[in-house]
Amino acid sequence: MGIRSVFDGGELRREVEKSGIDPKFIPKIWKHILISAKDEDWDWEKQVPSLPSSAYSLLRSNFKTPLSSSIHSVFHSADNLTTKLLIQLHHNHGPFVEAVIMRYDTRLGKYAGQPRPGGLRATLCISSQVGCKMGCNFCATGSMGFKNNLSSGEIVEQLVHASTFSQIRNVVFMGMGEPLNNYSAVVEAVRIMTGLPFQLSSKRITISTVGIIHAINKLHDDLPGLNLAVSLHARPRHPLPDNACCSCFSFGKTHGFTASLSKEKSAENIY
Ligand code: SF4
């Protein structure tokens, strides 16, 4: 099978079905990995109890450890509100991607003059590619060029790692890579994140794109209810003309969101 993640949902399901195992065990496997993700000595029978014996042979022969990636380094901001994870892929032999946990206490903000309801929330910013081919000139990832697409499992594993630090409420695809250039893996990762055991609300997942229109249209059908952020930018000395990115604007009009655009230099959000 090569190096793969147990969170590569489609692949795992195919292998499980081929072995005659009921796929209903898959969320159970993921749940126990989520609970025990920090454990150093992994024993499938001990950490994921009560599976059929054929499931243990399949897991042991295909996945020597529960995760195909590991946390290489962790950086906390001085106020402890932000934690950056540098994650290494391919069992410590692969490239690095970044995932960032951003914490926020809603009670610090006001709504209609009153403290906002809620409490502590954590949003995870995740990567979908190693490098990126879009080459936005303000972006460090863009200057790397494109190296690799992440598999759906490698995307989901960032959530598993982050969950050992904070309970993640929101996920934003705003890390390394253009998510819509890795469409099928991103769609599968979102489906896994909204299913058991993660059960994130699709309303709390945002895909940020530079505006790949054909993929945006497809996404609207494949993952209804998901948030979309379109990032628009221009170089400081070359401001966007008034009709810039008209395809993004007309898409926004059709689908009921509006554009917030900086003509100077930065990426802005659209919902
Ligand atoms: S699409 Fe995103 S990751 Fe890619 S170069 Fe532009 S800003 Fe960077």
TrEMBL record:
Cofactor entry: [4Fe-4S] cluster
Any Pfam family hit: Radical_SAM
Keyword S-adenosyl-L-methionine: yes
Keyword RNA-binding applies: no
Domain Radical SAM core as annotated: residue spans: 118-271
Gene Ontology molecular function: 4 iron, 4 sulfur cluster binding; catalytic activity; metal ion binding
Keywords from the named record: 4Fe-4S, Iron, Iron-sulfur, Metal-binding, S-adenosyl-L-methionine
InterPro entries in UniProt: Aldolase_TIM (IPR013785), Methyltransferase_A (IPR040072), rSAM (IPR007197), rSAM_sf (IPR058240)
PANTHER family, sorted: 23S RRNA METHYLTRANSFERASE, RADICAL SAM SUPERFAMILY PROTEIN
Record-given protein name: Radical SAM core domain-containing protein
Organism this protein belongs to: Glycine max (Soybean)
